[in-house]
Amino acid sequence: MTSHSNRFPAAASPTDPAAVRMAVLPQLRHWIAVPLLAAVLIVAAGLALRFIPALTSADMSVDAELSHDHTAPLTGVAMFINVVFSPAGGVLMIAALCLYLLLVRRSPVNAIATGLVAAGGWVSSELFKVLVARHRPDSTALFNPLIPEPGTDSFPSGHVALASALAIAVFLLARGTRWQRPAAVLGIVVPVLVALSRVYLGVHYPTDVTASFLTAATGAAFLTGLWNRFGLALLSRIPFLAKLGPVPAPQA
């Protein structure tokens, strides 16, 4: 028989441990130094890809080959993913998840921590886009360009970073429950499908989408440490949150 604390769908009571599952998150021991080092390496890799033509040529060959193999069903799926994991779609998904946790599950701690990890892991990709400024694949070199997107925001993919950051946040929320395994499986399958769709559409290079997994993980790793250090202390200073659900006192 499953204990009440492991029943994810049911509304949490004020004393339910599930309502404060995200109060303390798993974190790296060196939660500042490791993400910082990872960020430096990611930027270095991105700049190498930008300034070494042979690397971009190898990348472009994959996009060009896929552009010959477009089919109506695959294109439909890729276009659907393009909309769902767009910036507007990302805002809606994260907001909906946080509002559900806050108003239905009555868990301000879970709502804010989940939103912080998801949004932070996603938005961190924008910093790498600015620092690397890699041009998107040339749509004129594709046999069948589906969504021509010029610009210098190719590295990494925001769509894939969003899917990866959401996957990390949902897994942290589901950990220790019967939903942990489904969350882990979907957390791998969905970002990979999003990554494949971006290359299929010809709007990103394979190395762009690969880097997106790393940027999302880097941002999430930093934010989990930041949350553990300051999160509960800040929430405890917002009185009305206690009316919505339990807010544990910060540890000394």
Number of strand elements: 0
Sheet of most strands: none
Helical content band = 55-70%
Distance between the termini: 36 Å
β-sheet strand percentage: under 5%
Query: Helix segment count?
Result: 9
* SS class: mainly alpha
- Tally the structural domains: 1
Contiguous low-pLDDT stretches (5 residues minimum) are 1-14
Round the Cα radius of gyration to an integer and report it: 20 Å
Mean pLDDT: 90
- Overall geometry comes to elongated
Written as H for each helix and E for each strand, in order along the chain, the element string is: HHHHHHHHH
Domain Phosphatidic acid phosphatase type 2/haloperoxidase: 111-224
Main location: membrane
Protein name: Undecaprenyl-diphosphatase
GO molecular function, one term: undecaprenyl-diphosphatase activity
How would you describe this structure to a colleague?
The chain is built from 9 helices and no strands. The protein is mostly helical and 252 residues long. It has one domain. Helix 5 runs antiparallel to helix 6 and helix 5 (108-132) crosses helix 8 (206-235). The chain starts with 32 loop residues before the first helix and ends in an 8-residue tail after the last helix. Residues 111-224 form the Phosphatidic acid phosphatase type 2/haloperoxidase domain.
